[in-house]
Write a structure and sequence with these properties.
CATH architecture of the largest domain: Sandwich
CATH topology of the largest domain: Immunoglobulin-like
Mean pLDDT: 84
Radius of gyration: 18 Å
Strand order of the largest sheet: 2-1-4-7-15-12-10-11
Number of strands: 17
Order of helices and strands: HHEEEEEHEEEEEEEEHEEEE
Helix content: 10-25%
Number of helices: 4
Strand content: 35-45%
Largest sheet: 8 strands, mixed
CATH class of the largest domain: Mainly Beta
Length: 287
């Protein structure tokens, strides 16, 4: 979630990532006798202003990322993967050249933005490779959190035969496309698992909002795009961060009756405007 500077922020974190010296935490995602073969591994990512405390290694397979916001600003945990044997040094070279995002940088989801003191979770299937947690939400000064040091590398290793390899069953499927959100059925009050599928021709995200009385999703868009000044007209409840074309992820939400919204801030590949400017936001009611 953020402004049109988000693509540049992905590249701008190269030097920050290269200088990171993470704690030696390891999570065996689904491996070992303690994790049922059908259940995703679970890791905890704690966000502060501006850093992540999180595992630096985990086994491949389905992984549920539980995000806890201990900061004073909104935070997310966007996961990116580096393919084709590329390293953070390669990302730094792309930054120097000023070129477009290369195909070997992959957006693979993760829990989307939440308010201070809140928690959210999202589940992704991660193959082996080199990854990073980053936060692309901007501060009120317009600088994205990744550029302030909120970036941390991690590695996904080969999985054992007991690792979960698929996303868990969902109550609702939410399809992302240019420029709409299409739910398989209306969301209802209570705890639900929502499968998110990007079926559009370009990357998308979904932020779930609980709207303040009398407010619309458009009000939150205006607030977020103009410095986040004053009380927010909605509370972000997570969702799934940027997914490349064909990407899938899921998240859980515990909903109470009221007005809600979906919104996508990702910049369009044609004109650079956030997708919300193309109408990719929706207000709906939960009863």
């Amino acid at each position: 979630m953020g402004q049109g500077t988000r693509l540049g922020a992905v590249l701008a974190i190269a030097a920050l990532l290269a200088s990171c010296s993470p704690d030696r935490h390891k999570v065996e995602g689904g491996a070992g006798s303690e994790t049922p073969s059908a259940a995703p591994a679970v890791i905890t990512v704690t966000a502060s202003d501006y850093a992540f405390e999180a595992p630096d290694s985990m086994a491949a397979g389905a992984v549920t990322v539980q995000l806890i916001n201990h900061g004073k600003e909104l935070h997310q945990a966007q996961l990116i993967r580096l393919e084709q044997g590329k390293s953070l040094a390669d990302v730094a070279q792309v930054l120097k050249s000023g070129g477009p995002i290369p195909s070997w940088i992959k957006f693979v989801g993760g829990p989307n933005g939440i308010a201070p003191g809140q928690q959210a979770e999202a589940t992704e299937v991660l193959p082996p490779g080199n990854y990073a947690y980053i936060c692309l939400i901007p501060s009120p000064d317009g600088v994205v959190h990744a550029a302030k040091g909120m970036a941390r590398p991690f590695t996904v290793t080969e999985a054992s035969t007991t690792a979960a390899s698929q996303l868990p069953p969902a109550d609702v499927t939410l399809k992302l496309l240019d420029y709409d959100f299409q739910a398989s059925q209306p969301l209802k009050a209570g705890r639900q698992t929502i499968m998110v599928e990007n079926v559009g021709p370009q990357a998308h995200e979904v932020v779930l909002l609980k709207l303040a009385p009398g407010k619309k999703t458009e009000d939150f868009a205006m607030w977020a795009e103009h410095g986040m000044k004053g009380p927010p007209p909605a509370q972000p409840l997570g969702g799934v961060t940027i997914l490349d074309k064909g990407g899938r992820g899921s998240f859980t939400a515990d909903l109470t009756p009221g007005d809600y919204g979906f919104i996508c801030f990702y910049p369009d590949q044609k004109d650079g405007k956030p997708h919300l400017a193309h109408g990719m936001m929706k207000t709906f009611k939960v009863s």
